[in-house]
Amino acid sequence: MKKKLFLIVSLCMLVFGLAACGEDPKDVDYNGVTYEQLESASQSLASTLVSLTDEDIENYITQSGDEITTNLMTKWKDLKPTIGDYVDLAEFSVSKSGKTLTTAQVLDFTERDVTLTCVYNYTDMQLEDITLDEIYSLGETMQKALMNTLMGLGTVFCILILISLIIYAFKVIPYLTQKAEEKKAAAAGAATQTVVAETPKAAEPEPVAPAQDDLELIAVISAAVAAAEGTSADGFVVRSIKRRR
């Protein structure tokens, strides 16, 4: 029984929801404001925008003192050179989401259409924001989406390549450090060898000439013979010395 009752309540809610969705927005009362009033306010604002001169726009930007008006005029100044000449007002729509009511008025231009959007606080129907947005074709929208996708993928690949290079650098840095240390050691060894080569060697003693040795030997023998004979060494002369084995 409870399941049947729940099913009946669900069906009733679905029927009421479909009935609400099928309601004409022109017949809805938007917290005391009618559809025609909202449409008239948007169209009046649009007509005022397209009738402004460049001087009027600059005056609004510099003298308005209102943030909403300043932002709207700044956006309108940027859009004017790119959208072409004004043609006419197009469709108007109203949408409500929670405590926010939004109206959208399309303006036709020769180069590109523009949407004038007004955002209201549904509680007191006070204007909170006004924006101007260019309307892009399906091809342009797809092209922008493709460009955004390519830019995102390119950014990801660049970051991955950078990370790979950093990881590879961790392998190369120790190798380069070792090479630098080897070069320093080789330079230190070469400097040591240079210092040793430049150090002067100790002077070697000159060899005694054989003739000088013979003269000394003759003098010793002459003195020994003179002593043995009891005479002076001046009384005889040693002519030659022969060595015996």
Total of DSSP H or I helical runs spanning 4+ residues = 6
Major sheet size, sense and barrel closure = 4 strands, antiparallel
- Helix content range of the residues, please? 55-70%
State the distance separating the first and last CA atoms. 150 Å
| Total strand segments | 4
Strand order in the sheet with the most strands: 1-2-3-4
- SS-based class: alpha+beta
Q: What is the general shape?
A: rod-shaped
Poorly predicted runs are 1-22
The topology string of helices and strands comes to HHHHEEEEHH
Question: What is the beta-strand fraction?
Answer: 15-25%
Indicate the multimeric state.
Answer: single chain
Radius of gyration over alpha carbons? 57 Å
* Mean pLDDT over the residues: 79
Structure description:
The chain has helices at 2-21, 35-51, 54-63, 67-83, 138-198, 210-229, and strands at 86-97, 100-109, 114-121, 126-134. The protein is an alpha+beta fold and 245 residues long. Mean pLDDT is 79; it is low at 1-22.
Summary of the model, kept short:
This protein has helices spanning 2-21, 35-51, 54-63, 67-83, 138-198, 210-229, and strands at 86-97, 100-109, 114-121, 126-134.
